Amino acid sequence: MLDITIIREKPEWVKEQMEKLNDMAAKDRIDEIVRLDAERRALLTEVEDLKAARNRVSKEIGRMKDQEAREAKIVEMQGVAAQIDELDEQVHQVEAELDEHMNWVPNLPHTSVPVGPDDSHNIVKETFGELPNFDFTPQAHWDFGPALGILDFERGVKLSGTRFYVLRAAGARLQRALINWMLDLHTTQHGYTEIISPYMVREAIMYGSSQLPKFGENLYRDIEEDFYFIPTAEVSLTNLHRDEILEAGQLPIDYVCYTECFRREKMSAGRDVRGMKRGHQFAKVEMYKFTRPEDSYDALEQMVQHAGDVCRALGIPWRIVEMVTGDLGFQATKKYDLEMWAPGCGEWLEVSSLSNCEAFQARRANIRYRPEPKAKPQFVHTLNGSGLALPRVMIAVMENYQQADGSVVVPEALRPYMGGLEVIEAE
RNA sequence: GGAGGGAUGGCCGAGUGGACGAUGGCGGUGGUCUUGAAAACCAUUGAGGUAUUUUGUAUCUCCGGGGGUUCGAAUCCCUCUCCCUCCGCCA
């Protein structure tokens, strides 16, 4: 959620930002927000004067001895109370409307973000590693994976339908090795604190990280128990410090959390249906930071490095892509994607998405800190980034390390996590 | 699933219709005392709005969430959520 004062003070400028984001629906809400905000404040002034009068007279009534005068005052105040009720009701309505509009307004892009209409204009900032040359035609993981006995799409479908698969034997172990290795890297080398948190959360939590109301379509939920299944650990991690006032000395807080993620993928129906690239359930190691406002952009660059360290250590070609305004998404002021090369599929796969959300989520989840002892609390900045998403890393590892005979070499970094296994071969 | 009991400030805990944003204690901060520290004593110590060009002042709201009764609610009523105790069930 944006700070209402920026809309109040610079509505035209905010509209320009919405245009850059290519979010015309949000732009159209701005005038209404300005109107509702003014109405709200006018109503508040009115009703608060009445309440002040009521409080004052009620105290007098408590002290009055003269029964007749007392009765007269009570009758008088009955009228005032009725007016207050009516105005309070109006305030509630206006606030609910205002809230609804604010919930659909995205975060403002940082000044450093290149302006562009959509993802086709994103900028490849830097590419690392050489694209591999094979002396055979590299296969897609969906071809050699099942043959190796490590990947089973048919049985995944049997269990749960399309977009599900089963990892088996060294395939299952490879994913577990990657998870453990990433967690170890981030906790021991990058200073993150490891978290394990619920995969199911209440509705209010989804508003806190702004998955709701805009992205409800992409969420699984249990209606009977009113639980939502998290589409990313970002949801749980954002809300971990919900309604808290942190001490400045606690910041930055850096968390890393492995979870399964659940997504309906309604928006991408029919896309990426083949292979492991886009499933309804997938594993992800997520990095998350709470920082002071002045530190958040440095923290973002740092987090890009941390995610990049994972790519680098795997020895797979990767690149950093900077999002233009039109592809920023809802919560981010600035965002990078990390992509790994997959020679079998022949495409760059998004293995990480790293965002600074500034105070956007903190405002919704009410996460503050005290800059100085006794100072007024301020909203923290929050950042999130994958470190990394497992299925696509699995694809990249399998496809980059495949050999002519269909076997897969285990990257050196992972061997200690695979019991020393060097090559995954058919049983 | 059954039966009870609870939710009050950073923490503990008092408050059952009117000077209660809330006794008291702990903790925090500042001071007195001290060579220094401790102890003791004194003072201070929540959050969010709105108005007023304003660092002050006034006022409103907040005692788990929402709704109700009343001139007036931490206090009475309804409802939801969460926690605790006992029983049952269970990885």
Strands of the biggest beta sheet: in what spatial order?
A: 1-11-12-13-16-10-9-4
Q: Report the total helices.
A: 12
Largest sheet: 8 strands, mixed
CATH class of the largest domain: Alpha Beta
What is the helix/strand order? HHHHEHEHEHEEHEEHEEEHEEEHEEEHEE
Spans where pLDDT lies below 50 across 5 or more residues: none
At a glance:
This protein is of the alpha+beta class and 427 residues long. It folds into two domains: 4-102, Serine-tRNA synthetase, tRNA binding domain (Helix Hairpins), CATH 1.10.287.40; 119-424, 2-Layer Sandwich (BirA Bifunctional Protein, domain 2), CATH 3.30.930. The protein has twelve helices and 18 strands.
Structure explained in plain terms:
With 427 residues, the protein is of the alpha+beta class. The chain has 2 domains: 99 residues, Orthogonal Bundle (Helix Hairpins); 306 residues, BirA Bifunctional Protein, domain 2, CATH 3.30.930.10. It is built from 12 helices and 18 strands. Strands 1-11-12-13-16-10-9-4 form an 8-stranded mixed sheet, sandwiched between helices. A hairpin with a 7-residue loop joins β14 and β15. α3 runs antiparallel to α4. It is elongated. It starts with a helix and ends with a strand. The mean pLDDT is 94. It binds one RNA strand of 91 nucleotides through α3 and α4.
